Amino acid sequence: MEFWESSFIDKQTMWGFEPADSAILAKDFFLEKNIKDILIPGIGYGRNAKIFIDHGIKVTGIEISKTAIDLARQNGIDCPIYHGSVSDMPFDNKQYDGIFSYALLHLLNEAEREKFIKDCFNQLKPNGYLILTTVSKKAPMFAKGKQLAEDYYEIMEGVKMYFYDADSIKRDFEKYGLVEFTEIDEPNKEMKNKPSINFILVKCQKGQ
Questions:
Q1: Cis omega before residue 90 (within 30°)?
Q2: Among candidates 2, 54, 57, 48, which has minimal Cα distance to 25?
Q3: Higher pLDDT, 195 or 20
Q4: Could you tell me which of 158, 65, 66, 145 has the C-alpha nearest to residue 107?
Q5: One-letter-per-residue 3-state SS of 107-128
Q6: pTM for this structure?
Q7: Are 153 and 145 in contact (CB under 8 A)?
Q8: 50-80: pLDDT as tens digits
Q9: Phi, psi of 148 (to 5 degrees)
């Protein structure tokens, strides 16, 4: 499930169809590395998938929200999409050149995060790349609401988030081919008066 595209989705597709800056960066990187075939867990209604499809990259999605999948179809996203939770990965035995996941990892609890990262890594081809974004401690929601565990908060009823920093990124990703991680501020392109959200963009590569 993707917080930004599944939990708050409505008929107006409130996040619009302009891709996140992270998706644009991932698209450029995948094209540079000649990545042809990617998996997008938490594809939502497809706003980030479209930029890959439009540049000739084959996309397969996973999405828990049937409403989001229906909206994706209505808006011309015709790639294969598995209807289900990322916690139930894998949905096929295929390995992909690349995997892109936006604003999803931090919605999972500790065991779910570990399984999700491992499942993504296992579905990469040798030399394949995993690029994902996750919310940072510098985001305005950090330490808001009810604390459930270290750096893990229920920021509003039913919405739980784990907030990453450099140390926790290294802890969770170093054994999965961590290449680099960088901070990125993601603006809300539909509601420009809203503050941007600070994410960490993580890049991993699977070895031979």
A1: yes
A2: 48
A3: 20
A4: 158
A5: HCCHHHHHHHHHHHHHCEEEEE
A6: 0.89
A7: yes
A8: 999 999 999 999 999 999 999 999 989 999 9
A9: -105, -30
